[in-house]
Amino acid sequence: LRAPVAECGLFQGSSGSEDEARPDPAAAQKREERLRKFRELHMKRNEARKLNHQEVVEEDKRLKLPANWEAKKARLEWELKVEQKKKECAARGEDYERVKLLEISAEDAERWERKKKRKNPDLGFSDYAAAQLRQYQRLTRQIKPDLEQYEKLKEQYGEALYPTSDSLLHGTHVPAKEGIDRMVADLEKQIEKREKYSRRRPYNDDADIDYINERNAKFNKKAERFYGKYTAEIKQNLERGTAV
């Protein structure tokens, strides 16, 4: 009878050790959850590091661009949209100017009219720097860029088309023959217009000096031309000293 009892005790002891060695499902699940969260955090950290690096590169590019690059880019994009709109109107047989005016609200039209009335295109001569600036602005407004050629160059060179402070421009661009001819024609037009200017009138020593500078002299001549017949008697009385 002892042997079977011993064997039963041995069997019971081995069953308890197997229960202790078996892993707990709840603990394994908790460990797997922690590992999954750790992997997600690791992936998010790598993604944030990648985005930060891209932002640093983009910011460095923006800092190397010219100061007015954003305005130039917006202007070119607007001109491309206008050119595309003109082509669509031409394809439909519509007048682009009429379509554009139909899209403008009454408030915008009134605001532009008020702004146009306030604007004085000719401010007169102040100094040579201001005159040169006005001449430069007038000439640049006359330039009509070739937008189709611009799109081709943009597709060909990509980001290299927009120079930065590190770009080497000398010797990398060869102008087209059409562009050279256009520049020559514009220069000849300027020379022809300059030759048509009237020469400076000789100074008259016997004329009355009623001005302080040339601009004031021109103003006085205009005033005399329009109001001279009404003020002639007052002027004579002031010169004789008989004005009341």
Largest sheet: none
Mean pLDDT over the full residue set: 79
The N- and C-terminal alpha carbons lie at a distance of 159 Å
Task: Give helix and strand order, one letter per element, not per position.
Answer: HHHHHHHHH
| Oligomeric status | single chain
**Percentage of helical residues?**
over 70%
Beta-strand share of residues: under 5%
Global structural class: mainly alpha
Number of strands: 0
Shape: elongated
Q: Return residue spans where pLDDT drops below 50 for at least 5 consecutive residues.
A: 5-13
The gyration radius over C-alpha positions equals 42 Å
Number of continuous helical runs = 9
Notable features of this structure?
244 residues; mainly alpha; 0% strand
Describe the structure.
One of its GO terms (biological process) is mRNA splicing, via spliceosome. Involved in pre-mRNA splicing as component of the spliceosome. Pfam families: SYF2. InterPro entries: mRNA_splic_SYF2 (IPR013260). It is a single chain. With about 240 residues, the chain is an all-alpha fold. It is built from nine helices and no strands. The N and C termini lie far apart (about 160 Å). The model is unreliable at about 5-15 (pLDDT under 50).
